[in-house]
C-alpha cells in the first residue's frame, strides 16, 4: 500500500483541526463524490449528532477521498456554518478508500479505529466504548465486527436481503470458537490501530474486496476477531434487482482478487481443515455450482425431462431446508424480519440462485478481463 501511495503522491490535509488526543477511539467515515447524494446534508447532521454525543470518548473523522465534485466545498461550508464537532480530512488524489484510511490511521494517535460507511448508521456505540479496554488489551485480538442489518427499505428485494443477512450472521457461530470470520464488514467493525497499520502495509489497495482482504491479512498474522452483536450497523441496501447484482459483482470480484492474491494461505487452511479452510471449500463449491448450473440443467433436460424436474425440486428443497433450519435455531438473527417471512423464505431459494448466478458470472468475467489486461 505504501508503494501505491508514493506513486500517486497522495497527500493528507486536516480541514478543520486535528484530534486533541484525549480520546482512545476514532470513528472513520471515508466518502467520495457524495455531493449529488440527496441525503448529503442530512448525513452530515447525523455525524454531527454522533460526534457531540460521544465527544468525550470518541473522535468522529470524515475523510474526503479525492472527490472530483464539490463534496469537499459543501462540507467545508457545513463545518463553518455549524461549528461542527466532527473533524474533516482531505486526501488527494483518490486512493480507492484503503489509501485514504491508511493515511488517516497513520496520522492519528487513537488506540481503536471504528470503520463505517457514509450512508450507514451505527447504534449502541456505547456498548463498544464500554468494552474498549478489554478489546485493546487482548493481545491476539485484531478487533470486532458489529451486527449488520438492512435498514430503510421495503419490497421483495429488501426482504430478500433481510433474510440473506440473517443467514450470513448465523454462520458467525461457526467461526466463533477460533475467531476466524472471513470478513469484518467495512461498514461496521473496529480494529486496534497498530494491527490495522500492519494490515494496510500489506494490503493490495484493491477497492472491491478491501474489507475481506483486510480481515484475511489480520487472520494470516495470527489475530482473531469477535462478534459484538449488541452494536448495530444499519446499512441501506440496494432496492432493485439490477443494483443488487451490481453490488454483488463488486463483492464477488473482491473475493476472487483476494483469493488469487492470498491463494497459498487459503490452500494451507484447506489442507489443515481449519474453519477458514472449510468455509473456503464451501464457498468454492457454491461458486462452481452456481456458475455451471445452466449447463447442468441443460444436460439433465437432454437426458430426461423428469431428471430435470427432479434436479430442480432437489435444489429448491435443499435451500428451503437450510432456510428453515436457520429460522428455527437462530431466532436471534432472524428476528429483524418485518412480517411476511413465510413468503420471503419460500421465494428465497429462487432469488438467491438468480442473484448469485449473475453476480458470480459477472465477477468472473471482470476478474479474467483484468488478468488479461495485465498480461
Automatic annotation (TrEMBL):
UniProt cross-references to Pfam families, sorted A to Z: Glyco_trans_2_3
Transmembrane feature ranges: 285-307, 313-330
Domain Glycosyltransferase 2-like: 138-325
InterPro entries: Glyco_trans_2-like, Nucleotide-diphossugar_trans
Gene3D superfamilies the UniProt entry points to: Spore Coat Polysaccharide Biosynthesis Protein SpsA, Chain A
Keywords: Glycosyltransferase, Membrane, Transferase, Transmembrane, Transmembrane helix
PANTHER family: POLY-BETA-1,6-N-ACETYL-D-GLUCOSAMINE SYNTHASE
Family named by the database record: Belongs to the glycosyltransferase 2 family.
The protein's name: Glycosyltransferase family 2 protein
Species this chain originates from: Niastella soli
